[in-house]
């Protein structure tokens, strides 16, 4: 099976979005806990069929850094009839942005059937 080159991945069809999301690490997440779960507020910049690009201004929160390979739960990206639908994903890459203390992250979404939700968002903003 042929793997895509970096340039082929960059030219994949994407569509821009501007959505504030909350990302929570899956490791250590406990349901029913009264203590707040650590996480990060990030801005979703664009979506592709298999993932999203997130922008994180680190100076807005005092938390640990996200790590490449870390599995996260993304809240606020897509909504259904019953409200927000949490998506799961894995951080694939992370790079420092041109502005100080800001980072761009690439997240591969692993939630089953997420493509249907992404297509609905794409049609809504088109």
For this structure, what is the CATH homologous superfamily?
A: predicted glycosyltransferase like domains
CATH architecture: Beta Barrel
Order of helices and strands: HEEEEEEH
Query: What is the top-level CATH class?
Result: Mainly Beta
Major pleated sheet = 6 strands, antiparallel, barrel
The fraction of residues in strands falls at over 45%
Q: Helix/strand/pairing class, anyone?
A: mainly beta
Shape: globular
Residue windows where pLDDT falls under 50 for at least 5 positions: none
Strand order of the largest sheet: 1-2-3-6-5-4
What value does the Rg take, in angstroms? 15 Å
User: How much helical structure, as a percent, in the residues?
Assistant: 10-25%
CATH topology: Thrombin, subunit H
Secondary structure tally: strands: 6
Structurally, the number of domains stands at 1
Characterise this structure:
The model has no long low-confidence stretch (mean pLDDT 78). The termini are far apart. Strand 5 and strand 6 form a beta hairpin. This protein has 126 residues and is mainly beta. The radius of gyration is 15 Å and the shape is globular. The protein has a single domain, classed as predicted glycosyltransferase like domains (Thrombin, subunit H). The chain has a six-stranded antiparallel β-barrel. It is built from two helices and six strands, in the order αββββββα.
Task: Give a topology summary.
Blueprint: H1 6-10, E1 14-25, E2 40-48, E3 51-57, E4 71-80, E5 83-96, E6 102-109, H2 114-125
Question: Which structural traits does this protein have?
Answer:
126 residues; mainly beta; Thrombin, subunit H; six-stranded antiparallel barrel; 2 helices; 48% strand
């Amino acid at each position: 099976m042929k793997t895509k080159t970096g340039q082929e991945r960059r030219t994949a069809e994407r569509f821009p979005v501007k959505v504030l999301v909350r990302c929570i690490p899956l490791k250590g997440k406990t349901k029913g806990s009264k203590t707040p779960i650590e996480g990060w507020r990030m801005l979703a910049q664009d979506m592709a069929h298999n993932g999203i690009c997130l922008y994180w201004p680190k100076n807005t929160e005092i938390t640990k850094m996200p790590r490449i390979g870390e599995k996260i739960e993304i809240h606020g990206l897509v909504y259904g009839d019953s409200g927000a639908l949490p998506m799961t994903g894995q951080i694939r890459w992370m790079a420092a942005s041109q502005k100080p203390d800001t980072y761009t992250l690439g997240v591969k979404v692993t939630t089953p059937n997420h493509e249907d939700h992404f297509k609905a968002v794409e049609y809504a903003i088109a």
